[in-house]
Design goal:
It is built from no helices and 22 strands. The protein is mostly beta strands.
Length: 261
C-alpha cells in the first residue's frame, strides 16, 4: 500500500481519488493542536462507538433527580417522570413506557369493635346479636375483610356444645366469615365443648381457637361503598346458653379491610 501527499491531503497511491484531508479552520488563530498517536494500531472505523461495558455513570448526561431511564414506543431511550410522593412505577402495557401512578391496591383500613357487656350467642343467623355498637365501614369493590386481633371470652351457661359463627350484619342480611383455606363458614367448632365452659377466643396466641390464617369475608359477596355494619355472633348447632363475656372484661376485636382495587 502506497500513500502520496499533496496540497489537497493524503492520497491513496493506487487510487488518487481516495483522499484524507484535515480541516483546521476551527482552531484558534496562532494555536497549534496536536493529535497524539498511541503506541498501537488504531482502527478509526470504531471511533465514536464505546466498548461494551465501558460507559461509566460519569459519562452519562445529567438528568432530573428521581427520573428513571426507559424506552419509548419507537425503542429510543426516554425517561419516566418522577411523579409525586407515594406513587409507584406502573406498567402501561406493551408499546407504552411505564409511568408513576397512585398505588391501586393493598390499602388497609382498621376498625375496632369493643364491648364491655355480655353478648348472648343467638340460636340462628337471623337473630344474631351484635358485639358492641354498629359502625360505618368503607367496603371496596374488590378485597377482603378479616379479623386481625381478637380478645374475647366465650362462656357456656347450659348443656351441650358451643360452636359459634361470626359475621357481619348489613341491614337484615348476615354475611358469615369463611375460612380462607376451604371457603367454609368460619366457626370455632369443638373448641368450646361442654357446659359450663370458658375459653378465650383468639386468632393468634397460645390458645388458637381460630386458625391463625385469620377468618375472612370476601368483599364480592357484600354490598360495596360505605355501609353501616354490625359484628354478630350466633350458634352453629342452634343450641342456646352461650355468651361472649364482657361484664368482667372488655371484648376487643380489630377488623382489617384490605382494598384490592
Amino acid at each position: 500500500m502506497s500513500i502520496k501527499y499533496s496540497d489537497s491531503g493524503f492520497l491513496d497511491g493506487a487510487d488518487e481519488t481516495k483522499k484524507l484531508s484535515f480541516d483546521v479552520s476551527g482552531v484558534t488563530t496562532g494555536t497549534t493542536r496536536t493529535i497524539t498517536m498511541p503506541d498501537a494500531n488504531v482502527d478509526l472505523s470504531s471511533v465514536g462507538t464505546p466498548d461494551d461495558n465501558s460507559v461509566t455513570l460519569a459519562k452519562m448526561a445529567h438528568g432530573t433527580d428521581g427520573e428513571i431511564i426507559t424506552y419509548d414506543s419507537s425503542g429510543a431511550p426516554a425517561t419516566v417522570g418522577v411523579g409525586t410522593s407515594g406513587q409507584v412505577l406502573t406498567s402501561n402495557g406493551a408499546g407504552s413506557a411505564p409511568s408513576m401512578q397512585d398505588a391501586g391496591g393493598g390499602n388497609a383500613t382498621y376498625y375496632r369493635v369493643t364491648d364491655s357487656t355480655d353478648t348472648v350467642i343467638a340460636t340462628t343467623a337471623s337473630s344474631a346479636n351484635a358485639i358492641g355498637s354498629s359502625f360505618s365501614m368503607d367496603i371496596p369493590t374488590e378485597g377482603i375483610i378479616r379479623l386481625v386481633t381478637t380478645d374475647a371470652t366465650v362462656i357456656g351457661t347450659g348443656a351441650g356444645y358451643i360452636n359459634p359463627y361470626f359475621g357481619f350484619k348489613i341491614g337484615s342480611t348476615v354475611y358469615p366469615f369463611i375460612y380462607h383455606r376451604n371457603n367454609t363458614t368460619m366457626n370455632v367448632d369443638e373448641n368450646f365443648t361442654g357446659y359450663p365452659s370458658t375459653a378465650k377466643l383468639t386468632i393468634k396466641g397460645s390458645t388458637e381457637l381460630v386458625a391463625s390464617i385469620a377468618a375472612m369475608v370476601y368483599i364480592n359477596s357484600m354490598p360495596t361503598s360505605t355501609q353501616t355494619v354490625s359484628l354478630v355472633v350466633w350458634e352453629k348447632e342452634g343450641d342456646s346458653g352461650g355468651v361472649i363475656k364482657g361484664t368482667t372484661r372488655t371484648t376487643n376485636i380489630t377488623i382489617e379491610v384490605i382494598d384490592a382495587t
